Amino acid sequence: MESIPLSQSDAVWSANHEFYRAFTGRDATAMDAIWAREAPVTCVHPGWTPLAGRAAVLKSWHDILANPESPRVMCHDDRAVLHGDIALVLCEEELETGHLIATNIFIREANEWRMIHHQASPLVVRSAERDARPRRQDRRR
Fold it and tell me: What is the domain-level CATH number for residue 48?
């Protein structure tokens, strides 16, 4: 059976899904593979000061993933915006303790979508627009 090529939007959603799979599965190797190797990277964890540089960002993720108390996260309501070799994904992160809004930015590097920025912050107010928005069909197979 021949596989159907992914659209660029699908490829970005897939990369975003892999980020959350690595996070929830506490998979440091998979997390490392998601982040860009050539482009500068940054990360702002909730309540943290900004981190810059691949080494600092990946150390933070390795520490988080090694912590047995780290939260399980489910991503939903993801929306992707693409512009050339840059993609922005806005999504909601659901944790046992509440909800966060996340921004994940990807760059096409070596023909793969790799993360260059992740930022999550608490969701305090949910807009009526979000609840009225049509849901995206899951196109991953």
Answer: 3.10.450.50
